[in-house]
Sequence to fold (229 residues):
Amino acid sequence: MNDRNRQPDRNRPRPGPPGHPSDGLTDGRLVELHSQLARDKDEPAQGFSLTPIFIVFLFCGFGFWAGLYLTRNSGQFSAAVFDLDAPKAVADTGPKIFEPDAAKGEKLFLVNCAACHQPTGLGVPGAFPPLAASPWVAGADERIIKAILAGLAGEIEIKGAKYNGNMPNVSASLKDAQIANIATYVRSAWGNSAEPVMDTKVAEIRKAIGVRGQYAPKELLEAHPLETK
Ligand code: HEC
Fold:
């Protein structure tokens, strides 16, 4: 057999230039590697792809916006429009100071509380205790804030009548300021005359009690005894 007539062996290592990375690669392995690489790559894009078109639209949109902006704000490009001495807009300095707002509180009360305690604040005998002239509502505001935030369940006596109901908590659905406004309203409506409630007080108590179950009325009374009977 003449060596020169032998078909090249596909799996024979091809002698590349010394130090060349293909050193030691067989033809078969090369073909395999190539097809692997070809699979990993996207097909070469023909013509255009969608991205440039999208950018063209973006620029058109931007141009349109710029046109609108100029039409509205250019002041006809008149030099007279630019007034160096124009008074600067008064900056809205600092955070807004909360003012307890009984009118806002009333609206929230009608949505969140009146179904049980009634718009009259008189409650429903045997089921929902009155808030009008209730000693729970008057005096220190911690009691009512906690009751609103966490809810109440268990026996409670209001103005000589016993109730054993279940008041849901609203801490998740109402913000500090909203709860402050509701409490402010309840404490000033129907002949009640207790101090307004601040949102910071609600925030402080919300933080202190965390997310918790309903209070038993007894527990709340121990922490915040009634000032009036
Ligand atoms: C689903 C009915 C229901 C809703 C809604 C409800 N309450 Fe009550 N509330 C009750 C019941 C029942 C009690 C008595 C709880 C008990 O028996 O332990 C109560 C007790 C109270 C008390 C203490 C007792 C009193 O009469 O002074 C206050 C204050 C109070 N609720 C205020 C509110 C406020 C403010 C809202 C709205 C944010 C509200 N409640 C929403 C049912 C409700």
Notes: The longest strand covers residues 152-158. The pocket of heme C is lined by residues 112-113, 115-117, 128-131, 134, 136-137, 144, 147-148, 152-154, 156, 158, 163-168, 170, 182, 186, 217 (CB under 6 Å). The chain has a mean pLDDT of 86.
